[in-house]
Amino acid sequence: MTLSAIEIDHLKQAHTIEGVLPVIAGRWSARSFADREVSPADLAKVFEAARWSASAYNDQPWRFLVGRRGSSTYKKIFSTLGGFNRDWAGVAPVLILGAASATFSHNGSANAYALYDLGAAAAALTLQASALGLRSHSMAGFDHAAARQLFQIPDDYHLGAVIALGYQGEPSALVQENLIALETTPRTRKPLSEFVLEEWGTSVDLG
Amino acid sequence: MTLSAIEIDHLKQAHTIEGVLPVIAGRWSARSFADREVSPADLAKVFEAARWSASAYNDQPWRFLVGRRGSSTYKKIFSTLGGFNRDWAGVAPVLILGAASATFSHNGSANAYALYDLGAAAAALTLQASALGLRSHSMAGFDHAAARQLFQIPDDYHLGAVIALGYQGEPSALVQENLIALETTPRTRKPLSEFVLEEWGTSVDLG
Q1: A51 near A45, Cβ under 8 Å?
Q2: Is the ipTM of this complex over 0.85?
Q3: Looking at the domain covering A5-203, what would its CATH class be?
Q4: Could you tell me the residue ranges of all domains in chain A?
């Protein structure tokens, strides 16, 4: 079965309500990437989106190691990925490793919001990517110790996710049947009643 | 000096490049809120935006305690705020406290991405709010232990930020001169060269 990027996007569209930003309803985590580079101008846009995120004390604790396919940065990030992610991520033209300073730059004290703020910046990055017609996929499955060692990341930085970035590819090019199925399966989420709460364990009525 | 919401938004607009999503360039952290309620329909949209965020194993670890002004939930969240935040946040019509499950629901193992994923969901929430003409402000400054105790939040949940949500108010209504100044000061961020890296300490050239 051959599916166009438009058909796949339709399958992956969030079943949500009117008024939700199209870029939020349309973002999903692709695994099939086309053999097409991401321009430096578009990369600048996705990192500008991250740049303007909010952070505790405006510390902007996020750092992103960015590798384009063929570069040593890319090879190092790829080498840390778990087996399941290796089966597809090596086609993506860009791999990004996020990290966050665990201490505030203004006074050196611990920043309990480092990972929270990194996650926020990464979310803006992936939404901006989606607005540019790019696909992304954030991965928790990689060897943190190896990544730290390969890039000599200081101990006072937390590691975030590895993000694959590129253009939608043809799902049938994926090497594993189960990955092809995942690429076209509708996205699912818990209902609001499970996480929008008035008290712990009691839902808010938004009816 | 009286400023309209449009004039304030102009002052707060990110100095960024063309192609960055308007909702990303335009979101900022307000402290002056109007005496105007947020409709349940708009609240549903902001939480739908959070709902469709990505998360490790699609665990969706985020939980949001949501209080509307006058409610006991609101009073409890407000009571945990630090002094600086108390000076302005009590005018916001909605206060939200984020939390994240520290363990995966599918197997009970530790989720190192709980706060990262909560931060991502909260970012989507604030961007959606901005798209609806709402303002938000995320606060790290609150008493975590008190919040845990007041809502009986289990130990295996991390706490995220408290988010104030509402419509832009008149900055001159803020009680402190320094808050009025903050409300109209342009936003600043580090340049990309400080956080978009090829190697640790070496910037990527994005031309």
Answers
A1: no
A2: yes
A3: alpha beta
A4: 5-203
